[in-house]
Amino acid sequence: MTTKQHYSLDELNLETRIGGMGVENDCTEIPLIDFSDFENRRQHITEALWQAATQVGFFQVENHGITLDTIKQTFGIAESYFALPAETKALNARPKGQNVGWEFMTQVRPSTGTQDQKESYQITLPHMASLWPQEQVLADFKSITLAFEQQAWALGMKILSCFADKLGFERDFFTRAHDRSSPEYQSTLRLLHYLPLQQQGVDAGLWRAGAHTDFDCLTMVFQKTGQDGLQACAGKDAQDALSWTSAKAQDGIITCNIGDMLMRWSDDKLKSTLHRVRMPREGEYQGSRYSLAFFCQANKDMIIQGPENKYPPISAEDYLNLRIQANFAK
Ligand SMILES: O=C(O)CCC(=O)C(=O)O
Ligand SMILES: [Fe+2]
Known about the structure:
Number of helices: 9
CATH superfamily: B-lactam Antibiotic, Isopenicillin N Synthase, Chain
Keywords: Ethylene biosynthesis, Iron, Metal-binding, Oxidoreductase
CATH class: Mainly Beta
Radius of gyration: 19 Å
Strand order of the largest sheet: 2-3-11-8-13-6-5-4
Bound molecules: 2-oxoglutaric acid, fe (ii) ion
Largest sheet: 8 strands, mixed
Helix content: 25-40%
Structural class: alpha+beta
Cofactor: Fe(2+)
Family: Belongs to the iron/ascorbate-dependent oxidoreductase family.
Strand content: 15-25%
GO biological process, one term: ethylene biosynthetic process
Shape: globular
CATH topology: Jelly Rolls
Pathway: Alkene biosynthesis; ethylene biosynthesis via 2-oxoglutarate
Number of strands: 15
């Protein structure tokens, strides 16, 4: 455990106020946006995304083109990975300060000061070197997760191209800013395993993921039907009232949220929204919860500067480093 500290970014000072239970009243509707026939319906989809991102900061997408088979296969390999012995996973342990490799209960959110009840494995393409599990330990892990990473990236860039249109940037502005072939690439696929409930739960002040905003431009979370717990402090006045709305888990539906980097890049027009994953309560499913999260984080060498220059320019590398340092105990 760590004590709460004073951090240097406004976003972090906000987080430290938010660690309590608040009110779970599901008072905000999380928009569901249909991505079918994207090219022909681009304008309509763009308006729906803009409305959702400026008013709520959270939205879900369906008919997005990533097949249920692909998603299930990726969940399957993630679950096999997390079932490996801890000593085996420790061979791919996360080096300090980087979003790569395996970690077990090391993330401590400024909002709670307690360890998230989870383990994760992160993939950030240029920094994987020896961090892949060996083929003889878990066959096809690398090929399946890499293929999924590519598809999640492509969908993320599609969504960001809609925001680029509305912000007055060139349509491929964010695609260039998240160039997958560059050594400066720092978008991340995170496989998540939230531990089954033991004796202590939410009443003991524990969280699967304590309340936080994301550091990135856009996060896309794949969940599994029956494995709920993700909640957003979303909508007008929700933050003052500390009221929370569930982002229901459903196979094939992707829950998306705006992160701090895009909020800054849009001069605060697009809302980065607090969210958390709470522990199950009595009478709820208490087994493991798995999710897959893709974080679109602009390449290190990109300079974040909004169209109206509301904030001074900062490199994506500096921006992210400040946040990573504040969020991990070791
Ligand atoms: O697993 C989830 O549902 C959400 C994960 C999340 O918010 C995060 O890792 O930033
Ligand atoms: Fe998050």
